[in-house]
Write a structure and sequence with these properties.
Distance between the termini: 68 Å
Radius of gyration: 32 Å
Structural class: mainly alpha
Order of helices and strands: HHHHHHHHHHHHHHHHHHHHHHH
Number of strands: 0
Length: 532
């Protein structure tokens, strides 16, 4: 028995298996494209549709982590509820069983052919569909090649007495669960554990019962992966990890006493096919647990929310959803930043709506409160720009670069609009209060009418923000605003002839307010051009 060769082959086969899974997942993700995000968002109306969405996406892309990242991102953006993510997680558990079913097929001899054909498809052809199909086939071939290498490596153990004696100890299922949990936590992949178990079971080195115990342990081992991946991530990600741990640990505890019965069932379903029996046991475990837990989604969600509460320091931020965790998916990251810009637009609009009336007739306290609101805008502006900068530092497509540039321009427009009101106009209003002059009711009414037109333009720009397609500029609306603005300007000039020591000072103040409204309308047109 050459243990050096055995260990090298076993580790090499495991490395091929894991790399093949990553390659296959990348190919599946590329083939699915952004459609999986739209599908997931549209299928979370209730626990049942969430279950279907989680199962479908994970079955297609063979990565529960990608499904989880999307779900957590949608929760943070307020697009779906935390209860919906629990249905998605349960569905993802079912979707991952497809991996075990695939590797249970005894087609390891075709692995080299799959690798050759997959390589040619992914590197020679330019058509995106063929390239993705080639990548998927290449990854699948590497998975089966890894299985073949591990099978050859463990073949000598059939006649190695010390190993056989050691395997007899797995009759104590607790040992099997511990081994499965530790190995899965070490390699960070329950699929790898399942693959090794299928290899050992196919060689006759371990029985079905011991295999099931290790598979149960692998489910607990994924909890370590989930918890480690959630450290330093948004609270929504930590809640998902805690829910995942709850489902897995409670599920294993429920099934521990029924390992023998489960082994009997799978042996009856596929007699003589040990690999398929292990895969079926893995599937039955996850499907049965889902059937149980899907009815308890609401109370479990309340329990997890109670266990994982928001940190106070996170509440100081304006947009807690803008976390580097979501940079793993550029489409999701850009959608989160776009939603945050829309929220910042709403807060900016509140300032723009109140700014002109307060500048014309507000008192000192009202002006102080208005200026303090700009602190939130500045905070949100900094948070969004930092997040967009992090996106820009990643590898993104041309289309994503175009979206990023539009978002940077839009957030700058909003910050400029808020600053124009809370700085220039507030300072002018403070000067009005110091001088003690009062603007006539007729003048206020005329200026407010023009202000309403600018607000309508800004509101329309905000409503159109993020809508695909070019938004045409309404030249008639622009001309109407210019005419109304000019009418007020002429009215102010005519009032210069009125008597009064402060007439020039009042005219300068009124003209400054009117110029602020003109700038507001110009910023609205600029934002509208960046909306499409």
């Amino acid at each position: 028995m050459n243990f050096t060769t055995l260990i090298i082959l076993l580790l090499g086969g495991l490395a091929l298996f894991l790399h093949g899974m990553n390659v296959m997942t990348d190919g599946l993700k590329a083939a699915a494209g952004s459609k999986m995000k739209s599908f997931l968002k549209g299928m979370t109306r209730n626990r049942w549709t969430s279950l279907v969405a989680g199962t479908g996406i994970t079955a297609v892309i063979q990565s529960s982590s990608v499904t989880t990242v999307l779900a957590v991102g949608f929760v943070s953006a307020g697009l779906i509820t935390f209860q919906s993510t629990l249905g998605i997680i349960l569905g993802a558990n079912i979707g991952t069983t497809i991996t075990a079913q695939i590797i249970a097929f005894k087609i390891t001899k075709a692995s080299w052919l799959m690798i050759a054909v997959g390589f040619l498809g992914s590197f020679i052809f330019k058509k995106e569909g063929i390239k993705n199909a080639g990548t998927i086939l290449l990854g699948l071939g590497l998975v089966f090649l890894g299985m073949s290498v591990m099978s050859d490596a463990t073949a000598p153990l059939k006649s190695y007495e010390p190993f056989l004696v050691l395997m007899e100890g797995l009759d104590n299922y607790i040992y099997g669960i511990i081994i499965g949990a530790l190995f899965t936590a070490l390699v960070q992949s329950s699929s790898a554990t399942t693959g090794v178990v299928i290899v050992l079971a196919s060689q006759g080195l371990i029985g079905v019962e011991a295999s099931i115990a290790i598979i149960l342990g692998a489910n607990i081992g994924t909890c370590v992966t989930a918890l480690l991946s959630a450290l330093g991530k948004p609270r929504a990600a930590l809640r998902v990890a805690v829910a995942h741990i709850f489902f897995k640990v409670i599920g294993v505890l429920l099934w521990f006493a029924f390992i023998n019965q489960l082994a009997t069932v799978v042996e009856h379903i596929t007699p003589g096919n040990t690999a398929r029996q292990v895969a079926n046991a893995h599937t039955i475990f996850n499907v049965a647990n889902t059937v149980i837990f899907i009815w308890l989604v609401n109370p479990i969600a309340k329990l997890v929310n109670w266990m994982v509460r928001d940190k106070k320091k996170l509440q100081e931020r304006l947009f807690t959803e803008l976390h580097d965790f979501y940079l793993e998916d550029m489409e999701l990251a850009l959608e989160l930043s776009q939603n945050s810009i829309a929220k910042l637009g709403d807060k900016t609009f509140e300032i723009l709506k109140a700014g002109i009336p307060l500048a014309l007739s507000g008192n000192r306290q009202q002006l102080v409160e208005l200026r303090n609101k700009d602190t939130l805008i500045d905070l949100g502006h900094a948070e969004i720009l930092t997040f967009l900068q992090n996106i820009q530092s990643r590898s993104i497509s041309k289309d994503q670069t175009h979206v990023l540039e539009r978002q940077i321009e839009a957030v700058n427009v909003l910050e400029s609009a808020a600053d124009m009101v809370t700085t220039s106009l507030v300072e002018a209003a403070e000067h009005r209060i110091e001088k003690g002059f009062v603007i006539s009711e007729n003048t206020i009414d005329r200026i407010i009418e023009v202000h309403k037109m600018a607000l309508e333009a800004f509101d329309k720009a905000l409503q159109h923000y993020g809508v695909e397609g070019k938004i045409s500029d309404n030249s008639l609306e622009k001309d109407r605003f210019k005419e109304a603005l000019q009418d007020v300007r002429l009215y102010l000039i005519e009032r210069l002839s009125e008597a009064g020591d402060d007439r020039i000072t009042i005219y300068r103040f009124e003209s400054e307010v009117l110029e602020g409204i003109r700038r507001l309308h110009a910023l609205a047109r600029r934002l509208k051009r960046k909306a499409g």
